[in-house]
TrEMBL record:
<feature type="active site">
    <location>
        <position position="252"/>
    </location>
</feature>
<dbReference type="InterPro" id="IPR016163">
    <property type="entry name" value="Ald_DH_C"/>
</dbReference>
<keyword id="KW-0520">NAD</keyword>
<feature type="domain" description="Aldehyde dehydrogenase">
    <location>
        <begin position="15"/>
        <end position="481"/>
    </location>
</feature>
<dbReference type="InterPro" id="IPR016162">
    <property type="entry name" value="Ald_DH_N"/>
</dbReference>
<comment type="subunit">
    <text>Homotetramer.</text>
</comment>
<dbReference type="InterPro" id="IPR029510">
    <property type="entry name" value="Ald_DH_CS_GLU"/>
</dbReference>
<dbReference type="InterPro" id="IPR016161">
    <property type="entry name" value="Ald_DH/histidinol_DH"/>
</dbReference>
<dbReference type="GO" id="GO:0004029">
    <property type="term" value="F:aldehyde dehydrogenase (NAD+) activity"/>
</dbReference>
<protein>
    <recommendedName>
        <fullName>aldehyde dehydrogenase (NAD(+))</fullName>
        <ecNumber>1.2.1.3</ecNumber>
    </recommendedName>
</protein>
<dbReference type="Pfam" id="PF00171">
    <property type="entry name" value="Aldedh"/>
</dbReference>
<dbReference type="InterPro" id="IPR015590">
    <property type="entry name" value="Aldehyde_DH_dom"/>
</dbReference>
<comment type="similarity">
    <text>Belongs to the aldehyde dehydrogenase family.</text>
</comment>
<keyword id="KW-0560">Oxidoreductase</keyword>
<dbReference type="InterPro" id="IPR044638">
    <property type="entry name" value="ALDH7A1-like"/>
</dbReference>
<dbReference type="InterPro" id="IPR016160">
    <property type="entry name" value="Ald_DH_CS_CYS"/>
</dbReference>
């Protein structure tokens, strides 16, 4: 084990070593010689200790008035704001995406924390008239209990905040297991909570591998809600594991997102959108633009423009502010994407640019791939159908608007889609007919904002949404309350029959 700062688990308001006595290194994917830190390789005992703390803290936290919980979150948001640049640099080092993106990731956590802090003075229910005299009806939200969060590496502070902040404002307590590749960003989030007075046991963190810790988190009867972001394959297993106990489950999984370009589109704008959507975060977003379908009348022109721009993208260490695209997060992810590049070639797609690994000089220190574009991709090809999660864009063409809609919907997923057109009628028709949870007009498939629900249809999710007030439905239960002050027994649907 190389020397480096040792970071501990956060359990019951204290920084503690794992009971396993084991640790692991977190290395920069752009420079494997750069050690970010040494983190705890936790085990089931650590998970139990964290759940113990969360279960005990829940008894008091649920009774703290929601506005007071909100005041604490306001302070956490302010601390995140003050430390934004350092947190962004830590994130670029551990995850690889460029600084403007990691600053945005931290900003998203800031926005979500402020947003949910404000919900502390709302958490609206409703009042309704009763069908009977001298009777009052209303609804309220109530917390559920201990929440378990399993979060991904691609948005290592934003996505944890999507889960944490609505859970906390509703009065729940949490145990979070960050992705093995990006524990530092969640450590920073825990430090902010600790510094700003989140009570001991309300937030807890254990680091380590998902396989070792996931079963212990999900299997504990005291965990009432499980929120998972990751692959559809693992999400299905999470859902099956939670089903016997009827735990609440929120799943945010894969995507195979499409950008449609009509013949009347502003091609310069469409090219910019495709570049950002496909190669932002090195294509490692669930909302990344993986499929581009272009009207046949403008396909040749736009493809040429796009390939020229993609070839000009500067790939390198994200700490260099002149860089446009960073590395893959790890060697395994890089090899997966390289495998899909070979699949595309073998299946007959036309390689227009990229198609391999970048080597030589500083590239040999990390996991760098070329921005890759395939043309003449058909709907039968694997690179059209399967999520790649890397800087690979597949281009197809269409002849009519109806054909474009059919191609857009030809996927097992339903997260995000976009349409470039100047025709308002086609824009509204596409909004209606493309079956996704998120839709953009004249914008890329990436760029969700915290005050709108985030999530998808089909194999992207299980019907729940993250962010905005929709997240409150994941982390609270509705209670309908009837107050009868008539002094008699009144029977609904019976005594009002006449």
């Amino acid at each position: 084990m190389s020397s480096g700062t040792v970071y501990k688990n956060y359990i019951n308001g204290k920084w503690v070593e794992s009971k396993s006595g084991k640790t692991f290194e977190n290395l920069n994917p752009a420079d494997k010689t750069d050690l970010i830190g040494v983190f705890q390789k936790s085990n089931a005992e650590d998970v139990k200790a964290a759940i113990d703390a969360a279960a005990e803290a829940y008894k008091k936290w649920r009774l703290v008035p929601a506005p007071k919980r909100g005041e604490i979150l306001y302070r956490v948001a302010a601390r995140l704001t003050a430390n934004k640049e350092q947190y962004a640099r830590d994130m670029t080092r551990e995850m690889g995406k460029i600084l403007i993106e990691t600053r945005g990731d931290v900003q998203e956590a800031i926005d979500m924390t402020y947003y949910m802090a404000g919900e502390g003075r709302r958490l609206f229910g409703m009042t309704t008239p009763s069908e009977l005299p001298n009777k009052f009806n209303m609804t309220i939200r109530q917390p559920v209990g201990v929440c378990a969060f399993i979060t991904p590496w691609n948005f290592p502070m934003a996505i944890p905040s999507w889960k944490m902040m609505p859970a906390l404002i509703c009065g729940n307590t949490i145990v979070i297991k960050p992705a093995t590749d990006t524990p530092m960003s969640v450590v920073n989030l825990m430090q902010a909570c600790d510094a700003e007075g989140v009570p001991p046991g309300v937030v807890n963190m254990v680091t380590g591998s998902g396989g070792a810790l996931g079963d212990a988190l999900i299997g504990d009867d005291r965990v009432k809600i499980v929120s998972f972001t990751g692959s559809t394959e693992i999400g299905r297993k999470v859902s099956e594991a939670c089903a016997p106990k009827f735990k609440h489950v929120c799943l945010e999984m894969g995507g195979k997102n499409v950008q449609i370009v009509m013949d009347d589109a502003n091609l310069d704008l469409a090219v910019e959108g495709a570049l950002w959507g496909a190669f932002g975060t090195t294509g490692q977003r669930c909302t990344a633009t993986s499929r581009l379908i272009i009207h046949k009348d403008v396909a040749q022109k736009m493809t040429a423009m796009l390939v020229d721009r993609a070839k000009a993208l500067k790939v390198g260490n994200g700490l260099d502010e002149s860089v446009n695209m960073g590395p893959c997060v790890n060697e395994s992810q890089m090899n997966t994407v390289l495998g899909y590049m070979e699949i595309g070639k073998k299946d007959g797609a036309k390689l227009l640019c990229g198609g391999g690994r970048l080597t030589g000089g500083n590239y040999d220190k990390g996991y760098f791939l070329q921005p890759t574009i395939f043309g003449e991709v058909t709907t039968k090809m694997r690179i059209w159908k399967e999520e790649i999660f890397g800087p690979v864009l597949s281009i197809g063409t269409f002849s009519s608007f109806d054909e474009a809609i059919a191609m857009a919907n030809d996927t097992a997923y339903g997260l995000s889609a976009s349409l470039y057109t100047r025709d308002v009628n086609k824009a509204y028709a596409a909004m209606r007919d493309v079956y996704t949870g998120i839709f953009y007009v004249n914008a890329p498939t990436i760029g969700a904002e915290t005050h709108l629900p985030f999530g998808g249809t089909k194999e992207t999710g299980n019907g729940h949404r993250e962010a905005a007030t929709a997240a409150l439905d994941v982390f609270s239960e509705w209670k309908s309350i009837y107050v009868d002050f008539s002094g008699t027994i009144q029977r609904a649907q019976i005594d009002n029959a006449d």
